[in-house]
Amino acid sequence: MLYRVKYFYKAIKNGFTSLRTECEVISPLRLLRCARNNADDVYKYNKNAFQLIGCVLILCQTFYSCSDKKKPINYADDIAPIIHKNCSKCHIDGEAGPFNLLTYQDVKSKAKLIAYITENRIMPPWPADASYTHFANEMVLSNEQIETIKTWVEQGAIAGDTSKLERPEILKRELRLGKADIIIRFPEKIKVTGNNMDMFLVCKLPYELPKDTFVRAIEYVAGNKRLVHHVNVHLIQFEDRKKRNVIEGKNWVNQDQSNSQTIHKELGILHDDGTYPAMSPSVCNYLPGSQFSFYPKEIGGYKLSKKGALYLNDMHFGPSPKDDIDSSYFKIYFSPTPPKRPVQEFQMGTLGIAPVEPKLVVQPETVKSFHIKADIPEDISVLTIVPHMHLIGKKFWAYAIKPSGDTIRLVRINNWDFRWQYFYQPKTMLHIPRGSTIYVEGLYDNTSNNPNNPFSPPQVIMERNGSMKTTDEMFQLIMTYVPYQKGDEEISIENIEP
């Protein structure tokens, strides 16, 4: 609150020995200082001068008493909403966070650490530039929220009335987006050899149900988030009469793209007569740091045949210096109705519909830019935007230009982080008109100054026929979408309920 006071010495009879025009102040403290300085001009025991100073003291006391009565920051009212929205989803049993952040005691025990990493914007991790584009369920703290956390810690991390907060078991259930209808697990844990090399598997997880049904969503839950780099999942639909035993064959084999037919036979994914079953592509995907979410109702979904299998044509474990294990699994969410608007996908760049230009080769001690361009032949409503690079990626920028010349902002990442690769979703379905052109620009840093460089000294790093090895490079923009319908722009993707 600000005050502006003007007074004239003439107005106070016999109050001052000299005449000044005015004294103007804008706060109680400055008002007091002004009065004090001018009091030197009053006669030693002048009554009116002391009355003026007395009024100023009362004004200051009132102002600062009101400030002192401001309610202290507490966990229950002020901190829990911030933590639960932005931190708890990762800091929960089985997720990426190294410790839980669900309860007051959880958060209080890490209070100083939380204040430090939020003030320095180390956490929560959100690589996308929020000044360029906002996304659904984005984890970006405002300056006010950061200051609230800092002040809470400085005030002693007061608890408040925690009895009104949801119990941890209820919060866990909400954070995990409800209960799955079925869970499909690997029959045994996968052993990862500690040889500091990438490991690629092709896997099959069979299932058998009482009858055909429909699926709203399939969620992959990584058992070892430190090792699992990415997973691409397709859905195999066996014909009941053509497949007697869905569990025959191996559960996984080492990947060998040049001999896919042998892999398929070893996994037992062919019908008994040797024909291939129907397959729904890309029903589930995973990247480091990605968070599962539902699409709006009536968007996406699949038919789930009575007999079938989840087919992981690419399960990538990053290099590990020691032997380790993984026990990942899948959560299946049923739907009472068949899919009305199936989701489609395209990717640009590496292995995509448009090439990387120039060829993705980065010489040692070089920083180099690359770009991708693709025209959009139909009106689409975008659901998910997925940028992808490897270790020497530095910057990523994607946007679309409409036929009218207007720009549609997609995503910009100013400091690429291989460990945090999100499936970015617009707040509402994003319409890209037919005839638009999508542009993607990327910057790669293959110098000794790049702490993420996998080689020391730097070596030539390039795209190698779609190789997904961590030490090779990729440059992709992957987008999921549905054909546009009028009104799609009004459909929210924020906080979709199970």
Structure description:
It contains 8 helices and 21 strands. The strands form 6 sheets. The protein has a 5-stranded antiparallel sheet with strand order 6-3-9-5-7, with helices on one face. A 4-stranded antiparallel sheet has the order 1-11-4-8, with no helix packed on it. Strands 12-21-15-18 form a 4-stranded antiparallel sheet, with no helix packed on it. The model is unreliable at 1-47, 55-60 and 62-69 (pLDDT under 50). The two termini are 47 Å apart. α1 (28-39) runs antiparallel to α2 (47-68), α3 (75-86) packs across α6 (143-154) and α5 (111-119) runs antiparallel to α6. The protein has 498 residues and is of the alpha+beta class. It has 4 domains: 9-68, no CATH class; 75-175, no CATH class; 182-341, Jelly Rolls; 345-490, Jelly Rolls, CATH 2.60.120.230. The protein has helices at 28-39, 47-68, 75-86, 104-109, 111-119, 143-154, 168-175, 260-267, and strands at residues 182-185, 190-192, 199-208, 213-221, 228-237, 252-254, 278-286, 302-304, 307-317, 324-326, 329-335, 344-349, 361-362, 366-375, 380-389, 393-401, 407-413, 430-432, 437-446, 461-462, 475-483.
**Range of helix content:** 10-25%
Q: How many strands in all?
A: 21
CATH architecture of the largest domain: Sandwich
Helix/strand class: alpha+beta
Instruction: Give the number of domains.
Output: 4
The CATH homologous superfamily of the largest domain is named Copper type II, ascorbate-dependent monooxygenase, N-terminal domain
* Average predicted local confidence, pLDDT: 85
Strand order of the largest sheet: 6-3-9-5-7
Query: What is the CATH topology descriptor of the largest domain?
Result: Jelly Rolls
User: Counting H and I runs of at least 4 residues, what is the number of helices?
Assistant: 8
Shape: globular
Distance between the termini: 47 Å
Largest sheet: 5 strands, antiparallel
Rg computed from alpha carbons, rounded to a whole number of angstroms: 31 Å
Measured by DSSP, the beta-strand proportion falls in: 25-35%
Secondary-structure element sequence? HHHHHHHEEEEEEHEEEEEEEEEEEEEEE
**What would CATH call the class of the largest domain?**
Mainly Beta
Poorly predicted ranges = 1-47, 55-60, 62-69
